[in-house]
Write a structure and sequence with these properties.
This protein has about 325 residues and is α/β, with parallel strands linked by helices. It has one domain: Metal-dependent hydrolases (TIM Barrel), CATH 3.20.20. It has 11 helices and 12 strands. It has helices spanning about 30-35, 40-55, 75-80, 120-130, 155-170, 185-195, 210-220, 240-250, 270-280, 285-295, 300-315; strands at about 5, 10, 20, 25, 60-65, 90-95, 140-145, 175, 200-205, 225, 255-260, 265. The chain has an 8-stranded parallel beta sheet with strand order 3-5-6-7-8-9-10-11. Strand 7 (about 140-145), helix 5 (about 155-170) and strand 8 form a beta-alpha-beta unit.
């Protein structure tokens, strides 16, 4: 067993229980929110508590929340929510970009105008070992991204900083990828070059693909396939997502898959009504209410489901 830091304090990895490996509480631009939106903080917190308590009532014990710099991470708000739910929330450090890094790092770093050791590694390590800002909450894993734009200089810099930090601290990693560009393989290459352990890496959004050869190549290198966008049927229909998981289970890959929705209590990327109309199943209930029954109907056993929802998330930290 290992100790896993959560929003409400450290727990044993064996106590994570049934876990969704990629969910968000809030995704929002704080600067945009403060200047251009009407915002009822207490109501948003109450809505999040309701949603997470509902998820706990469906038998889910833990969510991993990879909301990092670039996605609006604000831990004091998450602490207020965590205090009102029995659902365990595990938070991350890292940086989310598809292109450039923020201007706060644009001129500062190795070989730049202000030539100093990589500040991203320093910040990520502090979040993991000392805590995020002055909240006392320690991140438990790292997050980076690579999208259709590929390995831009900014993306590569972040990814290498994440790999270095993981190698130095032992913290696991989740990577946002675009499987249609096979970018999970690029992420594996870069992270491995920096000494990261690929068995402690979730290649996120692998469930958007039906390319079994690509998915098995990722898994054969040791990483976990994030089948983590259930409900986003506009990106890949429900039946295709189910068929892919069923086939990979049949081929012996249950121990290298993890499930989630990539849903959120609130996200400011879309109008809420338009979002509900376009992706009505993109919510925290979908796996419990729809995905697991469909997998069982297709012959996936309870033991294999437990492997994906309990054993794999636990092993991520062990």
């Amino acid at each position: 067993m290992s100790v896993v830091n959560t929003v409400t304090g450290p727990i044993e990895s064996a106590d994570l229980g049934t876990t969704l490996v990629h969910e968000h509480v809030f995704v929002l631009g704080e600067e945009f929110r403060q200047n251009y939106t009407e915002w009822d903080e207490e109501q948003k917190i109450a809505d999040a508590v309701r949603d997470l308590n509902e998820l706990k009532g469906l038998g889910v014990d833990t969510i991993f929340d990879p909301t990092v710099l670039g996605l609006g991470r604000y831990i004091p708000r998450i602490q207020k929510i965590a205090a009102q739910t029995d659902l365990t929330i595990v938070v991350a450090t890292g940086l989310y970009t598809y292109n450039d890094i923020p201007f706060q790092f644009h001129y500062t770093g190795p070989g730049l105008l202000f030539d100093v050791p990589e500040p991203l590694v320093e910040y990520f390590t502090k979040d993991l070992t000392e805590g995020i800002a002055d909240t006392g909450v320690k991140a438990a894993f790292l997050k980076c991204a690579i999208e259709e734009q590929g390995l831009t200089p900014g993306v590569e810099r972040v990814m290498r900083a994440v790999g270095i930090t993981s190698a130095q601290t032992g913290a696991p990693i989740t990577v946002h990828t675009n499987p249609h560009t096979r970018s999970g393989l690029v992420a594996q290459k870069i992270l491995a070059e920096e000494g990261a352990d690929l068995t402690k890496v979730v290649i996120g959004h692998s469930g958007d693909s039906t390319d079994l050869d690509y998915l098995m190549e990722i898994a054969d290198a040791g990483s976990i396939l994030g089948m983590d966008r259930f409900g986003l049927d506009v990106l890949l229909p429900f039946e295709d997502r189910i068929n892919t998981v069923v086939e990979l289970v049949a081929r012996g890959y249950a121990d290298r898959m993890a499930l989630a929705h990539d849903a959120s209590c609130f996200i400011d990327w879309f109008d809420p009504d338009a979002k509900r109309a376009a992706v009505p199943k993109w919510n925290f209930r979908h796996i419990s209410e729809d995905v697991l029954p469909a997998l069982r109907e297709r012959g996936v056993t309870d033991e294999q489901i437990t492997t994906m929802l309990v054993d794999v998330p636990r092993r991520y930290f062990e």
